[in-house]
């Protein structure tokens, strides 16, 4: 409803402007034809009717021909020449019309005006007949009265002189159309669009032929009156024909719109002479200015969503074959698919009121195979000023009796809430036709009260747009919102169960934790150590419901401190500046007295303003520790809402310490876009190389690169500057200020004479701002589309993906919470004290060549995030290409010494929140470790030497498809589905049962056992220098993360870094043993990284269940011995079979028995029990529709 109401309706002119006519004020007028081509139009009149169309469409063809003639300059004749031409080219007219023309000229001459002077207003002849039968009667009468005297028609009137001459071309035209249609019917080289046009021409010809026959069979045409006849004036035949088409006549009132006198003088204030019924000229007002845009109603539709095994074609056949749906077949206008692919029947507009019956019939016909729903074009209305005892039943009865709304039910009254002054407001959902009728009436009597009817208008969208801009301008950290228009995605937004209260972390502070289950009417989130509550108590709540919400709020907030409780409570009390205290206010004070909080509202400034009155209903309560030094005020910023914005600022003070000054901004890295390559090379090439151990040389290399970066790039801040909305501009800023001024003027004009004028000006300013925002969004969206064509991954991509995924959540900085999350993500394990000794045979180490370094640089992306050193990849690649020997010698020294430098084993932690997970829990984040790019280059060098050894000696199973070249998820899925297809192949007893079980490992990569990795490498038999440097790589690793207390360090003793080069290969080496476990012959293990799929095939279902349970038990035991944990609650299974003995299987996972599902998701593909993949198609289609 809101989308339809907000839609902007525009009326545009149709057709092509025609040349200016004599007597027209402005060239290019569409309602007149040039005088110098009028004669040629009249000359072609007979030929045009004879060769092209029937006399029924004569006037249309004349107007079409006249408007398509080439433009020629108009030379205005003098008065004498004009008079002579007027009388010499005069054609035959009806006597009455001629007398009327002479009478009008005499009246104007008596007034001292020249009847031949140019008119300043449009002249129009009497209205044309509305029906085709009236047109035939008018032409027949005119032909009889005029006689055979028209130019270009020597045969006289067509019907009386030679009717065969008229029918012969029309019949020939039909024959040619049929011949052309049959000729192209079976031609494959004719475009389908041409066939469609020929088919349409044939249909139109048949329709015209039928109308012609009906007109010929109509007997006894009455003689038309003056109001029906066409008045013909000299040299202006086509002008009057065109004007007659634009005049519409009311029955019984031939001169609709008032009498009009031909005004041929210069003065615009001419007295209108009296006219009678025989007057042929009428003065018609500008109907285009009076025309109002009508709201176009959408037709009702019936949507069918497939839920069974039937295809949409089968569903359509079943519906058409049902004899009980014959009435539906006559009321369907067209059948098409929705954007989601559902089947949709669009009903005719004449079937209004039958949609629900048709939906019920279709639902009964299809049963459980499909879900059937009806969609109507409905509008929401508000019925105001109801008394406080009126019920929904009384509203429904009153509307039915007064407006004959038979389809209205109590369910159409979607809401009935309390309003101010002891009144109620009802929200009514009615069809569009009924809504227009109710809005036209404007009022309805319900009981003893005459109530107002208004369309429900929501201003929330513009208000939230302005809020987003305000967060940028005022640098807000937290926004507490009541009744938001839309909810955001990501970990920066939390809401209550009703959606009326929300908290938006719009700044640099992250949401540390929130409630696992949202309450009704309130929601909380912990931000920067403060528990922030957002509340909304709508006026529709009864007193008991309001008190129940307060009890739940107090019970939840009692044990948390410090806290802020703010929101729209819709309660009055003298304590916060209301005129009086009501029951809600007293209940609120009594409930909050149980908590240690104080009221932060200051003064008696109204937070709600509407209609010249206001109240204080938006309240803020805080803990005493936050109240000290707190600033609170009601902002004068324009919000496009009836509520004012409330700004408050506070500071959390550590216990036992004085309030510290704000910390300076952290400096991290360099701004890569400002890199000056020449300056970088000048400083970099001057840096000397040093000799010594690999660790010292690695530190020296980092220092040299940092000096070159300082000389060529500016430093960047850790927290980037906020950006405004992409559609905001200076025009919107000015319109927002104008709305603010208009609102203040309207508030000050209450009770004065100009109050109505000021309120209208305020409404107009609000509408102007709303439309300007919409225009700006459309314009900027088109610009983004143009930018996307040039740069698909530029600003347009960032904005669109930001809308889909939501803004990335700020990093958590609370030290205690971060430590809790890190300990859960990076468990501690026993470290191996035995280390490899450096190899003695240094000559066996392959050298690092220049080509290898350049190939490694080609793999590094310029926009990848750097590690702790902050060196941009673009600058590092420039350094490698200019001095590759320096890096090659350092990497060779590291391998010969068997040492991976400690400076490159530092990893910077970045926590990515998982969607839909509660903040504050370790499982709600995906840890990413940012490593120095130079260290990743050394990892690539080791990887290039370790991978061939592992692959050549058969160290990895052929059923491991993750992190391996020329292998992907598609290969793993093909193996699983191939085994299942082979199992169910055949008929009857020849087919088998197949059970597919997917296993998930908790926190797999961060829990990888280093000792197990060393043992697996020893089994493969890698060279000693590789074993030594890998052993050094897996020791003394440090995790760095930023907190409010500064950078912190955490010792890591297990896992492979996510984001490293060497980590995936080491994981595959360690995880390879699980793929080679001694399992039952009927079981096959398929691996992709840490994902495991067990495929068990057996002749009997009981055997398949037994083998599945045994295989799961063996895998679980190996994981536990390796320090990994199986997530039993995430284990899923599906039974694939053609047999009908049983469609489910039961397998044991530890102490749990799980039942197979109809379908499971494996590596992004939904595998169902019949391998039809229908559910996967539906899932992907839904994702595409959302995107």
UniProtKB/TrEMBL annotation:
Residues 1-36, 97-161, 211-292 are annotated as: Disordered. This is Reverse transcriptase domain-containing protein. It holds the Pfam family Exo_endo_phos_2. The lineage of its organism: Eukaryota, Metazoa, Ecdysozoa, Arthropoda, Hexapoda. GO terms for biological process: DNA biosynthetic process. GO terms for molecular function: catalytic activity. Gene3D superfamilies: Endonuclease/exonuclease/phosphatase. PANTHER family: REVERSE TRANSCRIPTASES (PTHR19446). It comes from the Eukaryota. PROSITE patterns: RT_POL. InterPro entries: DNA/RNA_pol_sf, Endo/exonu/phosph_ase_sf, Endo/exonuclease/phosphatase, RT_dom. Residues 893-1167 form the Reverse transcriptase domain. It comes from Hermetia illucens (Black soldier fly). CDD domains: R1-I-EN, RT_nLTR_like. Residues 219-241, 260-270 have a biased composition (Polar residues).
């Amino acid at each position: 409803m809101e989308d339809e109401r907000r839609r902007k309706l525009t009326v545009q002119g149709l057709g092509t402007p025609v040349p200016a006519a004599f007597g027209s004020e402005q060239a290019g007028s569409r309602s007149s034809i040039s005088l110098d081509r009028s004669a040629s139009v009249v000359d072609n009149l007979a030929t045009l009717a004879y060769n092209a169309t029937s006399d029924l469409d004569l006037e249309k063809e004349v107007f079409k021909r006249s408007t398509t003639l080439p433009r020629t300059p108009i030379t205005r004749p003098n008065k004498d020449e004009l008079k002579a031409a007027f009388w010499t080219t005069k054609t035959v007219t009806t006597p009455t019309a001629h007398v009327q023309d002479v009478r009008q000229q005499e009246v104007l001459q008596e007034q001292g005006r020249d009847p031949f002077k140019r008119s300043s207003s449009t002249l129009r002849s009497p209205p044309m007949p509305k029906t085709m039968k009236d047109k035939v009667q008018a032409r027949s009468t005119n032909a009889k009265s005029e006689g055979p005297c028209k130019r270009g028609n020597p045969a006289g009137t067509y019907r009386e002189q030679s009717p065969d001459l008229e029918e012969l071309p029309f019949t020939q035209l039909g024959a040619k159309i049929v011949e052309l249609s049959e000729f192209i019917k079976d031609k494959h080289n004719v475009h389908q669009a041409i066939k469609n046009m020929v088919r349409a021409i044939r249909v139109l010809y048949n329709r015209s032929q039928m109308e012609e026959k009906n007109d010929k069979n109509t007997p006894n045409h009455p003689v038309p009156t003056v109001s029906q006849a066409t008045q013909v004036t000299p040299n202006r035949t086509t002008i009057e024909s065109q004007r007659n088409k634009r005049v519409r006549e009311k029955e019984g009132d031939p001169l609709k719109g008032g009498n009009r006198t031909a005004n041929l003088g210069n003065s615009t204030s001419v007295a209108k002479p009296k006219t009678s019924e025989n007057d042929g000229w009428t003065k018609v007002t500008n109907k285009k200015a009076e025309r109002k845009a009508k709201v176009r109603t959408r037709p009702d539709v019936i949507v069918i969503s497939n839920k069974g095994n039937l295809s949409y074609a089968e569903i359509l056949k079943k519906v058409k074959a049902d004899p009980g749906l014959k009435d539906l077949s006559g009321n369907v206008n067209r059948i098409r698919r929705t954007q989601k692919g559902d089947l949709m029947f669009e009903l005719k507009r004449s079937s209004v009121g039958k949609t629900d019956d048709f939906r019920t019939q279709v639902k009964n016909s299809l049963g459980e195979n499909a879900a059937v729903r009806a969609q109507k074009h409905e509008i929401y209305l508000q019925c105001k000023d109801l008394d406080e005892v009126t019920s929904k039943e009384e509203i429904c009865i009153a509307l039915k009796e007064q407006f004959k709304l038979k389809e209205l039910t109590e369910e159409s009254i979607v809401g009935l809430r309390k309003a101010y002054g002891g009144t109620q407001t009802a929200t009514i959902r009615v069809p569009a036709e009924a809504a227009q009728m109710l809005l036209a009436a404007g009022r309805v009597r319900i009981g003893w009260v005459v109530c107002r009817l208004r369309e429900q208008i929501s201003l929330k969208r513009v208000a939230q747009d302005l809020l987003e801009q305000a967060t940028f301008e005022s640098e807000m950290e937290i926004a507490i919102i009541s009744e938001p228009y839309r909810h955001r995605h990501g970990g920066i937004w939390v809401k209550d169960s009703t959606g009326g209260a929300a908290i938006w972390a719009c700044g640099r502070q992250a949401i540390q934790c929130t409630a696992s289950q949202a309450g009704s009417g309130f929601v909380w989130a912990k931000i920067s150590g403060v528990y922030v509550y957002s509340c909304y108590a709508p006026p529709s709540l009864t007193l008991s419901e309001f008190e129940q919400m307060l009890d739940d709020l107090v019970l939840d907030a009692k044990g948390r401190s410090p806290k802020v409780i703010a929101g729209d409570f819709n309660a009055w009390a003298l304590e916060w500046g209301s005129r009086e205290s009501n029951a809600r206010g007293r209940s609120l004070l009594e409930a909050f007295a149980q908590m240690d909080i104080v009221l932060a509202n200051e003064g008696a400034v109204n937070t709600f303003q509407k209609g010249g009155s206001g109240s204080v209903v938006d309240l803020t309560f805080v803990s005493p520790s936050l109240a000290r030094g707190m600033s609170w005020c009601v902002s004068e910023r324009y919000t496009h809402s009836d509520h004012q914005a409330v700004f408050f600022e506070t500071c959390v003070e550590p216990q036992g310490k004085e309030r510290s000054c704000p910390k300076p901004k952290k400096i991290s890295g360099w701004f890569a876009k400002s890199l000056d390559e020449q300056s970088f090379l000048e400083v970099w090439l001057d840096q000397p190389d040093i000799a010594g151990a690999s660790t010292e040389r690695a530190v020296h290399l980092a220092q040299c690169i940092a000096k070159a970066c300082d000389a060529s790039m500016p430093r960047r801040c850790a927290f980037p500057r906020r950006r405004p909305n992409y559609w905001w501009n200076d025009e919107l800023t000015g319109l927002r200020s104008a709305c603010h001024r208009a609102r203040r003027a309207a508030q000050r004009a209450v009770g004065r004479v100009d109050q109505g004028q000021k309120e209208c000006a305020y409404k107009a300013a609000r509408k102007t701002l709303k439309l300007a925002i919409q225009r700006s969004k459309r314009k900027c969206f088109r610009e983004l589309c143009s930018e996307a064509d040039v740069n698909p991954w530029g600003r347009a991509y960032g904005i669109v993906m930001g809308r889909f995924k939501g803004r990335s959540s700020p990093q958590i900085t609370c030290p205690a919470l971060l430590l809790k999350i890190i300990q859960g993500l990076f468990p501690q394990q026993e470290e191996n004290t035995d280390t490899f000794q450096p190899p003695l045979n240094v000559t066996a180490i392959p050298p690092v060549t220049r080509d290898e370094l350049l190939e490694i640089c080609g793999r590094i992306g310029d926009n990848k995030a750097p590690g702790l050193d902050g060196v941009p990849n673009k600058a590092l690649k420039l350094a490698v290409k200019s001095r590759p020997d320096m890096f090659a010698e350092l990497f060779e020294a590291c391998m010969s010494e068997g040492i991976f430098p400690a400076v490159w084993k530092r990893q910077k932690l970045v926590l990515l929140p998982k969607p839909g997970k509660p903040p504050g829990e370790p499982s709600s984040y995906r840890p990413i470790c940012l490593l120095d790019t130079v260290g990743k280059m050394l990892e690539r060098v080791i990887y290039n030497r370790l991978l061939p050894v592992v692959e050549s000696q058969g160290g990895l199973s052929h059923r491991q498809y993750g992190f391996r070249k020329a292998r992907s998820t598609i290969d793993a899925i093909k193996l699983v589905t191939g085994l299942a297809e082979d199992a169910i192949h055949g008929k009857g007893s020849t087919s088998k049962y197949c059970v597919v079980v997917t296993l998930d490992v908790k926190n797999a990569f961060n829990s990888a056992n280093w000792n197990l990795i060393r043992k697996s490498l020893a089994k493969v038999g890698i060279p000693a220098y590789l074993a030594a440097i890998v052993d050094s790589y897996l020791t003394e690793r440090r995790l760095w993360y930023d907190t409010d207390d500064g950078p912190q360090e955490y010792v890591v003793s297990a896992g492979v870094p996510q984001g490293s080069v060497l980590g995936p290969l080491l994981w595959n080496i360690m995880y390879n043993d699980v793929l080679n476990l001694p399992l039952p012959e009927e079981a096959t293990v398929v691996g992709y990284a840490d994902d495991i799929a067990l495929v068990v095939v057996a002749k009997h279902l009981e055997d398949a269940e037994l083998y599945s349970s045994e295989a799961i038990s063996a895998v679980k035991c190996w994981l536990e011995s390796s320090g990994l944990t199986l997530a039993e609650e995430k284990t899923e299974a599906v039974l694939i079979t053609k047999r009908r003995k049983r469609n489910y299987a039961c397998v044991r996972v530890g102490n749990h028995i799980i039942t197979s599902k109809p379908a499971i998701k494996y590596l992004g593909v939904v595998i169902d029990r019949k391998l039809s993949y229908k559910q996967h198609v539906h899932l992907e289609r839904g994702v595409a529709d959302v995107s």
